[in-house]
Amino acid sequence: MFKKVLVANRGEIAVRVLRACEERGIPTVAVFSEVDRSALHVRYADEAYCIGPAPSRDSYLRIDKIIDVARKAGVDAIHPGYGFLSENAAFAAACADAGITFIGPPPDAIERMGDKVVARQTVARHGVPLVPGSPPGLRDEELIAFAKTIGFPVMIKASAGGGGKGMRAVQEPEQLPDMLAAARREAASAFGNDEVYIEKLIPNARHIEIQILADSHGNIIHLGERECSIQRRHQKLIEEAPSVAVEENLRQEMGRVAIAAAEAVNYVNAGTVEFLFDSRDNRYYFLEMNTRLQVEHPVTEFVTGIDIVKEQIAIAAGRRMRYRQEDITPKGWAIECRITAEDPFNNFLPSTGTVTFLQEPTGPGVRVESALYRGFEVTLYYDPMVAKLVVWGETRAEAILRMRRALNEYRIGGIKTSIPFHQSIMDNTEFIWGTFDTGFLDRLRLNREMRRAKEYEKIAAVAAALVAHEEGRKAVHIGNAQADSRRNLWKQAGRIRAVRGLW
């Protein structure tokens, strides 16, 4: 096992990895930016080193600084968490060059799955079903011609994409040129690569992903599926395991396909294969493979009882997996809500400030992954997710009821959070029935806007009636003034000015 592990991350995931290391008896090293000097991950680690200013490009994304700290601290492994450098092949290679184990997949697997076009070509050769899509390297006019062959709607995607960046849904052919230009600009800004491609857009699809584990001895298993269809702007907000849409035979089939995708790139460590699932005909299509730990991994841990982070560490240390596929039997139901520092009543405007009060929910089946404490400063420098609330129940109904209870107990003062949004979703009929898909929040917003439009119509009607009434009243006043003019012109002018002055 490793002698010392550096965690190249911050926030709740850094705390999560530090805890796993401590339970394995491994000393830890944290890195932090100048604004994170008092962060919880800094307090929990055995050693901590500042690596630069607040902007992540000057600190958490600096490979050279992190490798320098790793050498100075004498670590023999680095866990990247998720985000930042977790899917950066150059970072994984730099670790290898420095004689340090990267707790994640090999650089080649990261690189091949990181380019979505290359990933599609790679897994297709292993029988993984794909959404119809364009070949790589096409110019705009060629992409427009291709889109016409598969029909609209289509989805534009960045080849080097992730996190919803460089993605555009296009409903009509006339929208495509402008959308292509916008997607290319966004992809260039986010990834330094403006290459995009086109896929057929599958309406009312669900987002289903399969968690896999692979060791360096040729063993690969899947841990079942997660349902991640509740998304806002392609960012997941609520996840659960298992999915109400997946039966056991389909679960095993998708699991086998996910393993085939991992085998296609000689994958080792934890990874997730994402699919679009069309519940109308039970067909599923490869979306991408995330070559890292996922934010939503706790829901899988809850239903399988496997500590995925500890397994990552053991696999990276060269150990053989303790589990076989026949050992994996998901039990119960888990739901995760991502708690973000955003105002759901103001179009999810980011909220910053000092946490003045904190009361986290506890009790049976409740787990909070957080780096918050009273006095913690939430800034605009990093992702707005500040905590994850995860619950488990023997049934989905019990999990929903438990999540409602936990959300009601959760108190975070000093900043606005997405807790009210999650409370409304837990009460939503479509969510409770499990009939949602990736368009769920768009429909919810549309319904809300339609209700608001009807309210506006009522308000407008009342306002029109009031205006008509007041205009009539003014006419009476002016008419009376004109009648008075026969008696006094000065008095008439004064009354007219007084009436007009009111309006």
UniProtKB/TrEMBL annotation:
EC numbers listed for it are 6.3.4.14
What are the GO MF terms of this UniProt record? ATP binding; biotin carboxylase activity; metal ion binding
Question: Does Nucleotide-binding appear among the keywords?
Answer: yes
Protein name, UniProt field:
biotin carboxylase
Q: Which UniProt keywords apply?
A: ATP-binding, Biotin, Ligase, Magnesium, Metal-binding, Nucleotide-binding
Report the SUPFAM superfamilies cross-referenced here: Glutathione synthetase ATP-binding domain-like, PreATP-grasp domain, Rudiment single hybrid motif
ATP-grasp domain residues are 120-317
List the gene name: accC
